[in-house]
Amino acid sequence: MMNAESSTHTPEGKLDAFEGLRGLASLAVLLSHLIIAFWPVLYNPGHPLMANYPGWAQALTEGPTRVMIDGQHAVVGFFLLSGFVLSLGYFRRPTTEVLSSAAVRRYLRLMLPASVSVILGYYAMKWGWMHNQRAAAHMTQLLGMPHTWLRIFYNFDPDMLSPACEAGWYTFFVGRCYYNANLWTMSVELTGSFLVYAFLALFGNLRWRVIFYIAVAVVMTFSARFFMLHFLIGVAVADVYVARERGGWRFRIPALVGLALAGLAVYIVSQKAILENYTILETKVAKSLVAESISGVILLVTTAFCPALQWVFSRRPFVLLGKLSFMLYITHLIVICSLGCYLYLKLQGEQGMSHHTAALWSSGATIAVSFGISCLMYLAVDRPSVTLGSLVYKKWFRRQAVIPTASAERPPLRLVEAA
Prior knowledge:
Elements: H1 2-6, H2 16-38, H3 55-62, H4 71-92, H5 96-126, H6 132-143, H7 161-174, H8 184-203, H9 210-222, H10 226-247, H11 255-270, E1 277-280, E2 283-286, H12 287-305, H13 307-313, H14 316-350, H15 355-397
Antiparallel strand pairs: 1-2
Helix pairs in contact: 2-4, 2-13, 2-14, 4-8, 4-10, 4-12, 5-7, 5-8, 5-14, 5-15, 6-14, 7-8, 8-10, 9-10, 10-12, 11-12, 12-13, 14-15
């Protein structure tokens, strides 16, 4: 069991299994956006028009397999995973240099790939490649029901200045992301990252830091900062995980229990309420968010402490998917609105294919091209951004160690002086 668990560590000290989870979450966001774009009824359990779809489609979207097309659940998973991964290195080596290095590198790590995606969105608009507005209008007329989601994007005239402002500033500090709406999570990610670093710097090395976990969690809950709470929960799980490593605890979640817990997490997502709220001390909390959070925490904890689940998620296809996950997440919406919608209009509007057939072909092409672009972006943008961040820290910000010379050494203290 020990060998199975230890084999899942990457050179950076992360778990390969968590790369796999992140990759699956990114794929879920892509699939959810394709469903909302072409089959919006299937994304809304209990929709009156659901009866018009075959039984297998209803089962796919309303049963346990819904977890693979639930983008909201996946985003919650992103934030939980970020809290875990960003704090793991500090708990294993609790020094200020670990936090300083991570904090300096974080903005570049997020900003450079996001900026490239903004540029892609801008030029796709400028060159007339965005077809989502026409596709939405066509499907609305063809099917007799509004396809409003596609209309949200690229409904303005591009200009040269706004992409530059959006790439470096608006996306991260204002929350405006017109050229790539998927980047709305970047402001949350950056804020959550520095929440993690601040919490670790202040409380991460205290003996009774559980008090501060509880206090900060209560404040976040009753101030409705739920995404920040997800980051904090990820930090707490990493804390316990590393404490187990150091203390040599033999706590393991057995394989059958781990699979049962993973199944429970999937079931909770499939049964979540969509439009209802809880009210706690005048604070409204969406029941769907509560269900997504509980499910995400179960998956996070179970993967951290179940070697069998670690083994599953650390298989090579999942790890490779995890490496591409960030690039896949920030590029696929651009591909849907351009290539995906263009193919749909060609196949259905001009070739006369049925809606479902044209949408399936368009979705398949979108997935394939999104993965191709993600591979190129990973090699040309993602990896260089990591390297650049490390170089910037080492060259400009890391304090050089001072090695005292023999002449500069202080003489030993004499307790008794000669008379």
